[in-house]
Amino acid sequence: MIEAYREQRKAARARRKRHIRAKVNGTAECPRLVVFRSLKSMYCQLIDDLARKTLTGVSTSNQVVAEKGKLTKTAQSKELGMLIAAKAKELGITRVVFDRNGYPYHGRVAAVAQGAREGGLIL
By CB distance 3.0 to 4.6 Å, which of 6, 34, 43, 81 could disulfide with 112? Predict the structure, then answer.
């Protein structure tokens, strides 16, 4: 019973992800900011879909986020957004498209976007 529920949730997220990816594409000037949410960590990447390259990526297990001390997962996600914005600025990127990767735009996912905006990125 529980396994069927897990498979159903996984399939629903995959469907949402396909619908999002059909509309959201990244370029070298405006890459795709994709987030992945696990139970313990958050991961962000800037991806150029035309060249099929990952430009940069960060995670909450990064040294800079870990130095901030004991933070909630949402606060860590906001710091992650600020960190990816700083890395994007180093690469000369100011505008990105946000890919929530099938997750609801709520909580930690929204905190990453908010942190990226505060860091200076235009979403």
Answer: 81
